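User: Here's a structure from my thesis project, written as structure tokens. My advisor, Dr. K., wants to see whether a designed sequence matches the one we expressed. Can you design one independently, without my sequence as a hint?
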């Protein structure tokens, strides 16, 4: 299994969140959105602008800076 930042994944790549780098506020906000350790996500779009992921049928747009701090096991 590869471990990489969310921003490095390509569309249709899937993986599980293994770590979120950031302060309490960032981790809390992502937890509220459903993005926490162990959750499986699929990248829908990752070119310019935010990274769009599918989380259990819901689409979420994540800023590129934040996506760089979400570590995925793919």
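Assistant: Designed independently from the structure alone:
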């Amino acid at each position: 299994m590869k471990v990489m930042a969310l921003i490095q994944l390509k569309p249709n790549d899937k993986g599980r969140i293994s770590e979120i780098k950031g302060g309490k506020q960032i981790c809390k906000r992502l937890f509220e959105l459903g993005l926490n350790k162990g959750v499986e996500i699929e990248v829908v779009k990752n070119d310019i602008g935010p990274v769009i992921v599918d989380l259990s049928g819901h689409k979420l747009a994540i800023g590129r800076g934040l996506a760089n701090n979400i570590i995925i096991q793919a």
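When you compare it with your expressed construct, this may help: Residues 3-73 form a domain with the SH3 type barrels. fold (CATH 2.30.30.90).
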